[in-house]
Amino acid sequence: MKASFQTLILTLLITSVAQSARADFTAFVVPDRKPIGEMTRGVALGISLLVIGFEFEYSESPKTKIRNTPSIRSGMFNVLVQTPISVSGLRFYGTIGGGVFRETLNVETKTNIGTNLGGGIKIKLPGPIGARVDYRVFSLRKSLRKELLQRLYIGLNLGF
User: Fold this and answer.
1) Mind listing the domains of the chain with CATH numbers?
2) Nearest 5 degrees, angle CA 77-CA 37-CA 128?
3) Residue 110 C-alpha from the chain's centroid
4) Beta 40-48 vs 52-61: how paired, if at all?
5) pLDDT, tens only, 47-100
């Protein structure tokens, strides 16, 4: 009797979590690079339960003509904490994560680890498409950059 009750509870928990789990794919650009046309771009693939979510994000900024500004590629794993329901089609979240990055400046290349902290808004649009606005601050260990890396991105989100 005890084992069947535990099995029933476990089955209910698994099915309730599975029904509330959502996956999404986001493609984004960071429109703050100069000169015009040299934008950071990237993709993120995530899974969200009711309040907690996880995502992997890859981004790349191209080589730039700005003096002493390195190009950078990064792969970050993030944990999101989000509002359990959307309010007027808006779902707010905070995120923290870490991963690896590779910078190139002239002939020098550096690969190391980094962390990021930020937050944003997922905006529900008609159908499976949504928009996402995200702000992150990156701490890159032994970076070639002279300034703090901050990123405000705008992306299109496909939920499935």
Assistant:
1) 21-159 (2.40.160.20)
2) 50
3) 22
4) antiparallel
5) 998 899 999 999 998 776 666 678 899 999 999 999 988 899 999 999 999 999
